[in-house]
## 1
Amino acid sequence: MALYLRELAGVNPAEVGPNCRLEPDVKERTGSHSEHGQIKQEWSSWWDSLTTRDTSPQTPVQVPDNLLEWLEVNGYPELARLARPHYGQATLFAHQHAEDFERRSQDYIPDRMDEIEQLLIERGIEHAPVAEEKQINVIEVPLKEPRAWLTGGSTILASSALLRDSTAFQGFLQPMVTIIFPI
């Protein structure tokens, strides 16, 4: 939903968040852009909070019961104002993407996880109890281009297209593993 709202607000992906548009296209809203700077700032702050927090299995992502109210209460009033008339469509977009991911991911996620493990082995990362515990979080997002971004130290945002392409996936991930696990 966050990426949908970014596109809806007309915020340039090159300026905030992963620098790639969503797939499929989201029509930018019409109307005044006088609050564009505020929305860009609020969106960037919200996105950072979503992608840099601990997303380990022990601390699952908590989805607020009422996102609009949550945005207003937590300092994102322009985003809440933008989201209000488009909430149904944004929710539908998010649910459709989640369903698509659920349906297709079983065909490629196990292979990508094996490839990450192989990259870690090649990097010399030990799985011994004395090794410092670090975790890589991979967040799949429906972007037009097969790309990946490292955010928050060990969180990787990867486009759906990239996760489906083994060679490209390894090409993007190898340098990220080097950054996350320096020798």
Note: Residues 55 and 61 are 6 Å apart (CA to CA).
## 2
Amino acid sequence: MSHPRNHDQEARIVGALERQHPDPKAFRTLSAPVWRSGALSEKDKHLIAVAIAQITRCAFCIEHHAALARKTGATRDEALAFSYLSAVLEALGSSDVSIEAGQLVTVDEAAVAGKPIADARLAFARQVFGNDLLEPGLRWLAAAAIAYAQSNEANRQLFHRQALANGQPEAALDEAYALVVVLRAGAVYAHTLHVVDAFEDAPDA
């Protein structure tokens, strides 16, 4: 049975593992450089991480990076704006996406084509992608990273091109994709907390 803990307590357990065992240390070696400011600021990296962690379904990662984003000056509204990008891209599923005059256009899947939900979904997508809380280049960059986390290569390439066209440097996109690599591993890595719990709860032989 897992122990009831708050996030700070869980983070301390993970930190102790990283000091004590070689594999967690290796994860820290992979992860730590990715969060330093570069072409993307620490704040933007942690905001993008919140969106990616929603795709990888890692509650620990969402809470962790939301807290770090807040510490670096992010607002709740900014974090939600990134989060809803993930919601849109999940809702779009396998529909074919293109961009015309700066707006998303979809060719809907057979299951929903011509139905009211397809029009409602597109309206939702356009609202979120038009949110003026996010600078356009950063919005497209985050969308490219989210698409990479979804293993949707067509969307990744589409959004990558849009990010470049809106002033994001290639280096910033490289950094965003590095976040995905770390957060994919981190989503599984966070579950080591449950492994530790299982052995702590085991009766002595």
Note: Residues 11 and 64 are 8 Å apart (CA to CA).
## 3
Amino acid sequence: MTYHTARRRALGLVSSLALFGALATGAHSQAAPHPGASNAFSTTHFWDDLQLDYLPGDTWERLRDNLQWQDRSHDARVQHWIEYYRGNPSNVVEIIERARPWMAWINEKVETRGLPGEIALIPFVESSFDPTARSHRGAAGLWQFMPGTGDALGLSRLNGYDGRLDVVASTEAALDYIELQAEQWYEGDLELSLAAYNAGAGTVNRARHAASARGEPTDYWHLQLPNETMQYLPKLNAIAAIIADPEAHGVELPEIDDAPTFAKVTVEAPINLAQLATVSGMDQAELSALNPGLTNGSAHPATAEVVLVPIEHEDAVLAHLTAPLPPGPGTGAEQYVVVRGDSLSSIAALHGSSVEEIRQQNGLNGDVIHEGQRLDIPRRSLAAR
């Protein structure tokens, strides 16, 4: 099985040595726009990129249409996990509710690549669909990327941005890496690639060599691997079997529409999430939950490519971001409204200014500011707009 994506071909340039022993996958960083890019803000949602003739409907029906490994449900290990999940239906529902903002979008990405639908459920096993999940070993995000693998794939983790926590970036990178490993090591065998995703390619390759030396099959289901990896695909296949026929397994799945839940706003200038939520009438917690990769609550074009906003607020957000800020009383200044948690240093960093410039512009003798206060920001510091 061969998959052709532009991103996979780009990842082929990554050193296989750097990826060989990785424990988990990594994500691409959200590259900054070209310095000559237009200053006009724009928004897109995932249907803009849809390459299939498909009308929005039910997420679970669409996923069922793409499941390809249902014959594995008879395996004893899969049956064990089916019984486990059946015995904890409330836990299954809780995890699926957490997946609500992302499930339809991930489905679409998996489908456009021609991958088995089961792969859309990997975050169920990896992180319980929690984009902020962190393991004791250092993995983070929906797809549980280890720092080393993320670094090898160009994942940015600086200036208030962590691509491992960015659902858009991490999903694309996870699918890229799964495809890359399948082709590089396993002649397109995605099950072996998923085992390597969990245990590292080195561990899986050594297990295959040992099995071959014993004259045994070298597919995933016959290998001797670490216990966690031995259970990895059975867990994935078990939850897929339940979703394929929830009624037969005594689980009532929450309904999730197969429709856009978020829009992507291009970051052409610094964006403060708290301020954006206030002026656009959004719930700040909801906006932050859609953007877990923005670890300091703001996006800068040097590190983040997009900000996600609830689809129902798309028009209000775009109207705010494209409207010029009112001029301040000082010459050559624009205004910024202080939100909870702001400091002069964070505001200066957000706008490419300095604390001293903001003090001078506003006649401040110290660093004390308060929520709702309007500050004049020197216009030259907003040149990124």
Note: The longest strand covers residues 262-266.
